[in-house]
Design a protein that fits this description.
By secondary structure, the protein is α/β, with parallel strands linked by helices. The protein has two helices and five strands. The chain has one domain. The chain is globular, with a radius of gyration of 15 Å. Helix content is 18%, strand content 22%. Strand 2 and strand 3 form a beta hairpin.
Length: 90
């Protein structure tokens, strides 16, 4: 997959993973459902992970342009997740 193709706008169907940097400069991979992803030290590792997880399907990985920051969601939040149905108070 060439760089120009990876930076093009994604098609409505087929994109499973988005690769880019967050506001802290970390490389982020996130799937469209927010269930699978990771933080990586370099772009090549992030793209490799996304391609492997998508079985190397063409168009499944989209790299956002350099000037766009990805917002890291709950998947990467440092706070431990609470079980469903529990309150914030202990």
């Amino acid at each position: 997959m060439g760089k120009a193709e990876m930076n093009a706008a994604p098609s409505a169907a087929g994109v499973r993973f988005t690769v880019g940097r967050d506001a802290r400069g970390r490389w982020v991979v996130a799937d469209r459902d927010g269930l699978v992803g990771g933080l990586f030290t370099d772009r090549a590792s992030a793209v490799h992970f996304a391609m492997f997880e998508s079985d190397h399907q063409p168009g499944a990985v989209w790299c956002v342009p350099d000037h766009v920051s990805l917002k890291v969601g709950r998947l990467f939040d440092r706070r431990p997740a609470r079980p469903a149905g529990t309150s914030a108070r202990a």
